Please model this.
Amino acid sequence: MKVDTIDRRIIAATQGGLPLTPAPYAEIAGWLGLSEQEVIARLAAMQDRGVIRRIALAPNHYALGVTANGMSVWDVADDRAAALGERVGALDFVSHCYLRPRALPDWPYNLFAMVHGRDRAEVEAKREEIAALLGDACRARDILYSTRILKKTGLRLKEG
Amino acid sequence: MRRAPLPPDAIDATDRQILNLLQDGFPLTPFPFRDTAARLGIDEAALIARIRNLREEGIITRFGPFFDAEAMGGAFCLCAMAVPGVRFEEVVTLVNAHPEVAHNYERAHRLNMWFVLATDTPEGIETTARAIEGETGLRVLRFPKQREFFIGFRVQA
Model:
């Protein structure tokens, strides 16, 4: 089991964000009837297991002017896709990067990378950087721009 | 969420330093604001006040742990459909009615509807995708992730 009941309570208490007080982990511990030490140790352990990706701040990239994005998709040779995917994901303008199955004949692409920029021209320029990085391992490519948000709900975990 | 860019003078150089530094991580220490403030050369109370203000202004979308929902037992799948233009609004209503549809975007492509299914169990993905196919008479292409890569995404403030 990756998370136990106490982990889940810590997750539920922090999924809205950390409290803005000088000792936030002690504050959470107080809510849950745990010690500060245990909260810190459990958060650290969840980070080690990959349940927590990072503890950090996410700026609203729209507010900072990074308002354009496109879902770039690539048909990358299977034997090179994992190594190249690592390099694409590490680029600072890519916010999501996944290998997914193709759906032939409709969909030949296996590498998905969400590309962000200040405008569409910048997104297209970044896309060329990815193309250069993939080189001859890439057989076909496309980019899908969103034209409308049809639904957007936060993913929130039930307290278990 | 705020989608319009800020006027250039809305945040100062210290705010920008905070936004840049804290994207890289926040310490798991008893007094993490004090430790971070020391690195920025400001005091703890000022750092907390600035983060609070940035959050209230919608310049921070999240401050805290980022969870891998899949690691906690949920299942996710990106799905796509090619919806005929004349049926688009009808199909949006049918698809969005499923609470398992977490988000849904119209995209400029023959596959013009892209949504993410989020369910408590892996079986829930198939059940929901088949239900949508039954209700719409359209194929739901499933693109489960086979591998996720570490993300270096960073916005320069």
